[in-house]
Design goal:
Blueprint (H helix, E strand, L loop, with lengths): L1 H38 L4 H5 L7 H6 L2
Length: 63
């Protein structure tokens, strides 16, 4: 039985370390998306368009 508990502890430690590595990258990813969004806020295409954009839920329902 001691071997089973050692295996369980080892697996948990590996999973926890993976979760920590994964969570370290999240702020970098959100920062990148925010930078992309900021660069497109003054887009001329959106201002020239006279047709109102289709809401996302309507596009999803049309598929």
């Amino acid at each position: 039985m001691a071997n089973d508990s050692t295996n369980t502890t080892f697996r948990w430690e590996r999973a926890c370390s993976r979760r920590c590595l994964h969570s370290q990258h999240l702020p970098q990813l959100t920062h990148r998306y925010r930078e992309q969004a900021r660069s497109h806020t003054g887009s001329r295409v959106a201002h020239r368009s006279r047709i109102p954009p289709i809401p996302l839920w309507e596009r999803a329902c049309s598929r």
